[in-house]
Amino acid sequence: MRALIEFDDAAIAALDRLAREQNVSRSALVREAVANLLERSEKPRMDDAFGLWAVSGSAVDGVSYQRRLREEW
């Protein structure tokens, strides 16, 4: 499928330079960049888990829970 995308002149120049260096077409570079972006967006990230304890709706205090677990050791 084709898509019409507008880039500024500086981006085109940078893409052309990279394409020459890698001996690929500008289109191949853009396809690779989009594929990488889509792959990264599908993987779970650590940011998604940060603060999960608070979001989980748990009424247990996190520090108390941690101390209780450590007492078992």
Automatic annotation (TrEMBL):
Domain Ribbon-helix-helix protein CopG: residue ranges: 8-40
InterPro entries in UniProt: Arc_rbn_hlx_hlx, CopG, Ribbon_hlx_hlx
Cross-referenced CDD domains: RHH_CopG_NikR-like
SUPFAM superfamilies attached to this UniProt entry: Ribbon-helix-helix (SSF47598)
Membrane spanning stretches: none
Pfam families (alphabetical): RHH_1
Name of the protein this chain belongs to: CopG family transcriptional regulator
Organism whose genome encodes this protein: Rhizobium oryzicola
UniProt lineage: Bacteria, Pseudomonadati, Pseudomonadota, Alphaproteobacteria, Hyphomicrobiales
